[in-house]
Input
Amino acid sequence: MKEKSYGIGQLSKLTDCKIPTIRWYEERGLLPVASRNAGNQRRYNQQHLTLLRFIRHARQLGFDLPAIEQLQKLCSCCLDDHLQADQIAKQHLADVQQKIAQLQAMETELNRMIDNCSYEDEHQCQVLEVLANHKLCSSGHVV
Amino acid sequence: MKEKSYGIGQLSKLTDCKIPTIRWYEERGLLPVASRNAGNQRRYNQQHLTLLRFIRHARQLGFDLPAIEQLQKLCSCCLDDHLQADQIAKQHLADVQQKIAQLQAMETELNRMIDNCSYEDEHQCQVLEVLANHKLCSSGHVV
DNA sequence: CCTTGAAGCTCTAGTTACTAGAGACTTTAT
DNA sequence: ATAAAGTCTCTAGTAACTAGAGCTTCAAGG
Output
């Protein structure tokens, strides 16, 4: 069976990613160089689709491009040094867990706002205070 | 009792935010204009500290500046239209819940990598596939 | 008091990660 | 066959910072 292939416009729609952004990821090296058809237009396959979705979701979660590159390498097991891979994974895990904690705190507060704040005026909502709380934060600030 | 006050360098250290970035948030209107001392230097208080931490954490979680502004307004109850506030809060809540789901999936996979992948070679790690999975994604892509 | 080094000021320019547009070529649908 | 839609490259613009030059202000030691 023949693999499904996509034009850049289709890929753009499937991933909710603008066309120039796709081309830019290719240029930047985050997305493998696409093959071209007779008329020099890019053709993408399932792997590109998966990878691009991964990149977009990771970006939405606040990872920058170098971090995404590192996660990619981690996944494709390009890192032969397992100890190093382990360390990188652990570092990203810590980052992810911190993000989860902060988002959950924010979720709680948003829920409280929706339940209380819009029907009565007494509760001062604290999304801001909760997300400002450094106890949820692994970085070194003290006060 | 007199309120604690900070210079821009102290604030920068306490929030892990670069000095020009702090000034830029002020210019941009995200941070209230700081009062100045006799020599024209900015002085910050506890409120600035809380707010700046909130901004930085929200940025790390992938919110853009307009979204942060909106959350701020929501918190300070500047929106007198409660129905509108409710809708904005709900929209952010959905966004937050989606981010949490994606991060938790990523957490699971990173943990699996750390447990298995670094000690034996059999398990192909799937951080990438998991984060590419559109079932966790509320946006409209279909394939 | 004076100095000297750190901290702050403004303004300009550079970086990252896109995003939009111009002008030409290719594909597709009638 | 041709018109419309899609894609190409290249250049320029935007958002959110980040760094540096050149100058002023603060604060601690002599």
About this structure: Chain B has a mean pLDDT of 81. The radius of gyration of chain B is 21 Å. Residues 82-117 of chain B form the longest helix (36 residues). Chain B touches chain A through 62 residues (CB under 8 Å).
